[in-house]
Amino acid sequence: MSDDFTLLPDLAVRTLGGAVLWADDESFAERENLIRPEAATYSPATFGHKGQVYDGWETLRQRGEDGGHPDIDACHTAIIRLGVPGVIKGVVVDTAWFKGNYPPEVSVEAIAVQGHPSVDELVAADGWTTIVDRAKVDGDSENPFAVDSARRFTHVRLRMYPDGGIARLRVHGVAKPDPAWLEAGPFDLAAIENGGLIADCSNRFYSHPQNVLMPGRARSMGDGWETARRRDKNTNDWVLVQLAEEGVITAAEIDTSYFLFNSPGAGSLTGIRADGSEVELLGRTRLQPDTRHRFLIDAADPVLQVRLDAFPDGGLARLRLYGTLTGEARARLRAELENGQA
Hints:
Helices cover 6% and strands 40% of the residues. By secondary structure, the protein is mostly beta strands. The chain has two domains: 5-175, Galactose-binding domain-like (Jelly Rolls); 179-328, Sandwich (Jelly Rolls), CATH 2.60.120.
């Protein structure tokens, strides 16, 4: 995996189940815009009753007690529940289209809370940990901040100083669901919400390969992974999946929905064991456009990664790899959680 944390899944995005639970002010533009999956847009001279309509979270202008500039520590705050708990590797505070009304500084905190706490409980909670110190940001820009923590978090708290607008908040990391959930029975070992992720791929020209591991059905061709047209012979595109942990794959689904004229002509699945050796899970098999292909897998070897080869190129909507964890994998996940490392 590249050192670029933005290649990791966005754990806060709405399509993964994230939610903006609370904000202390959203006078100009609603807080829910922060985690929309698409990039922020802007239409000039689109005025509503509260002023120019912005695709982001925008607060009122703070004032001091004398009616002048606010106190140096004045801020506005929003609390976001991650779609799935995880280890945060980096945050992007995107101020797209906010040019004269962006906040000059921001900070981000995180907390791990069990169960389903109420908004009041989260607002009053102790134990918030700073993962991004108060820092300057630029307007109309993606402002990235790497996070150096191995802890598992469930919620983040975004603060802007003193006020203004933020278009999107991206919280990139690795999902770490409750191990008890993963031990309940067979599940999709590749799904982002279960701890899977894309470790590498041959090409990401049109869209991000992490899309194929997102929950639910794809909504359009743009909600999948599509490569450039391959012109070199005897080569093919591929994507490498890091499973939630070591497991035995028993079934797979390769979904080409919405790819009517640009799906791969064939595909194969190769498992990669802990020692780096390979095992065939699904030999090269013809694929049809706009189709959910389901396959039973007859391989007893535990694997840590699975490579999907797409021949020769094209697009995929979703990839599902169903199976069960090994006993050693379950023990590692429990130990991670108990030791506070995830």
